[in-house]
Design a protein that fits this description.
Elements: E1 5-9, E2 16-20, E3 31-34, H1 50-53, H2 64-75, E4 80-82, H3 84-87, H4 93-101, H5 103-109, E5 112-115, E6 137-144, E7 150-156, H6 174-182, E8 185-189, E9 194-198, E10 211-214
Parallel strand pairs: 3-4, 3-5, 5-8
Antiparallel strand pairs: 1-2, 1-4, 6-7, 8-9, 9-10
Helix pairs in contact: 5-6
Pfam family, one: HET
Protein name: Heterokaryon incompatibility domain-containing protein
Organism: Lachnellula occidentalis
């Protein structure tokens, strides 16, 4: 278990977050966040505020990416989230050294890692509408989402305008590769699609390679040969 986690309680506008220190014997299910800082963090845990963080962290001061990670964690039915800027004491060299050395176990033991690939800084968030400048839209049809809200399905021309290999902001950060490889499961929020990758070899997951699923967008159509 990580030394510290963010404990989430309440729902909607009543959501509350506090720093939580599990005992050595505890085994809690949690998500981990992989994201771009963008710059030094205004909201972080320090030696001065680490104890007050255990009483609560004001929701409105949390950057948008961390707020979105809390929302995703809630929707997954989990109560704990690991975020480096809040779960590591950032001005304590010994704490940083100890916690950074635990990265393999922190990401490896997480139930799922949430990767904010589309965001270049912590204030961007990742649950907002998709990349708005998609060219060559053929048509858009309404679609009723599982939660009852009205969404849409868009057909695009893939022959021009859309890059074949999308480079996400998080793809340009070296440590993000480590976090992705270490994680058993990844829920990746990108510019064009949400991707689910699982390294498990049981149940639905094939043994020969990780399974990858997306919410629909492909850089090129899938061709099914006629028999």
């Amino acid at each position: 278990m990580p030394t510290r986690l963010l404990e989430i309680s309440g729902l909607g506008e009543e959501t509350q977050v506090r720093l939580y220190m599990p005992s050595l014997e505890q085994k809690e299910s949690y998500t981990a966040l992989s994201y771009c800082w963008g710059s030094d963090q205004e909201v972080k845990t320090t030696k001065q505020n680490v104890l007050s963080r255990t009483e609560g962290i004001t929701w409105n001061i949390l950057p948008k990416t961390i707020q979105d990670a809390v929302r995703v964690t809630q929707q997954l039915g989990l109560l704990f989230l690991w975020v480096d800027s809040l779960c590591i004491v950032q001005d304590d060299p010994s704490d940083m050294s100890r916690e950074i050395s635990q990265m393999p176990s922190i990401y490896g033991a997480a139930t799922v890692t949430i990767t904010a690939s589309r965001s270049s800084k912590v204030h961007d968030g990742f649950l907002q509408k998709r990349y708005p400048k998609i060219p060559d839209q053929v048509f858009c049809v309404p679609y009723r989402c599982p939660d009852g809200k009205l969404g849409s399905v868009v057909l695009l021309k893939s022959s021009k305008g859309i890059p074949r290999n999308v480079i996400e902001p998080l793809d340009q950060r070296g440590w993000a590769l480590q976090e992705r490889i270490l994680s058993r499961r990844v829920l990746d929020y990108g510019l064009f699609q949400t991707r689910w990758t699982c390294q498990e070899s049981t149940g639905l997951w094939k043994e020969e390679r990780p399974e990858k699923y997306t919410d629909g967008w492909r850089p090129r159509p899938d061709h099914i040969p006629m028999r």
